[in-house]
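Now for our specimen.

. . .
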Amino acid sequence: MVHSINMADNNWKASRRTKLLTVRNLRRTTQVLCFVGFVYLFLATVHRFDTNLNRPVLPSRAPIDTFFRIDPLLGLSAMLSARRVIEVMLVYALPVVLLSIVAGRFFCGWICPLGTAIDATSTIFFRNRRAAEPNRHFANVKYYVLAAIITAAVFGGQIAYFLDPITIITRAFTFSIYPVAQLTGRSFGHSEFISERLPFLISNTYLPNDVLYYYRLNFVAAAMLIGVLGAEVISRRFWCRNLCPLGAMLGVMSRFSVVRRLVANTCVACPMCMPKCKMGAILDNPTQYQANECIYCYNCTQTCPTLSTRIVPTIRKEGYRSTLDLSRRRTVLAMGAGALVAVMARTNIAAKTAVDSKIKVSDAGLIRPPGSLPEEEFVDRCIRCSECMKVCPTGGLQPALTEAGLEGLWTPVLVPRIGECAQNCNLCSQVCSSQAIQRFEIDEKPHIYIGTAAIDRSLCIMWNFDECKSSKRCLVCDECCSYRAVYWQYVDDIKRPFIDEHKCVGCGICENKCPIQPISAIRVFSYGDQRHKTREEQKAFYESGQRKE
């Protein structure tokens, strides 16, 4: 009888361990698939040139900004800041919100690509470290950060992008990892493996093969990702435990989760599960845990020697703790800091706009992508995801430094000297999750004004040309202009170039191709920006110039 009972018990334990192993493998497989999906969508921004359409197109029909759409923190902060409902972000993020309320912080443990990168870093570089005691001294910091972000959004300041995990890893991929990989691939372009299987590393099929992507702030983007991954040396998932505002938001929602950790009476109160918990969610009494910190990694169920721990759908409250022990004073300070940042950014001189046109007057080089909303609404909506910069076929879209002030940091600006806005391209409008860049068609580009070119007569060859003294002639700006905006008039009996403001949309190709170095003799300025006008008004302005001809 005893032997039969022991055999049945052993069989049950073996079956139980097999099921737990299956669940853990399922989680790891899901993590890998989601990360692979993230990388695939990132590489889907490497466009190809469609000869039939005569323009660059995206190789995938899947929304390449899917991870930004499902991010509830980015969606909420963008909508609060812009005072508008952004339908696409609401629709995609709503299932994540509902599932988090029902099933807890599954997103952090199963889907988040940064969380997967952190786990991989921990496994590869910190596998043999000694397990440390759970440190919960900083666990509430992420909630104070969340309070600051939401308050800033209420006051019209968009700052979620700085610490949101999806933007951190995407910016690092865009500004740092991809250019380095492309440069490396180009260096070994003679390799048959590289040229046949990884062609996106040596040619983007739209630019000449000697053109590479270069980005400002690439060191900053890389340093942020390295810092997040390197924090694993302090504790497992240090970023997720203590600093991630998206995790804090999902943690608040998961307080009502019906998927819970239960510990049976067979628990012998050993501490083996505590150091194995990635989030430090298990309290000093191993039968108790902080529900809003659990990411369902199933390490505790695997470690338990008596198999007493389960994670199951239930409404039982044994061992379930969901209260947030936040300091009222620190919460108020965090909210005050968020409000202060938003208001200071709004009242900074770099935020000043011209009264009649709502165009920033602080920087003449603030050139936004075509289709961008008026400046104030644009900086409120833009989530700084860097997707438009990555998809830009010329590399001309760069993260803003001081052009738009503090509130416009990391938003996209066109730097024509690096790359122009190609006439037959509208990819940036296809990948903008928050619709800060509105959709437009290629045939609308002749009357979407993002700036106006101006000739510096002190530098221009043709304005310093004298038939009696020089044989130099330059027609580059006229020959390359996609919109035929350069015209010629006689001045002092010599033909000189001028700019037709009705035809020039500020694409910057003239500035990019101008042979004068290092400062171009023809440059694009923001005073021709007409984003504050409707498409119909801009088209009427264009047609008025056509009638004058």
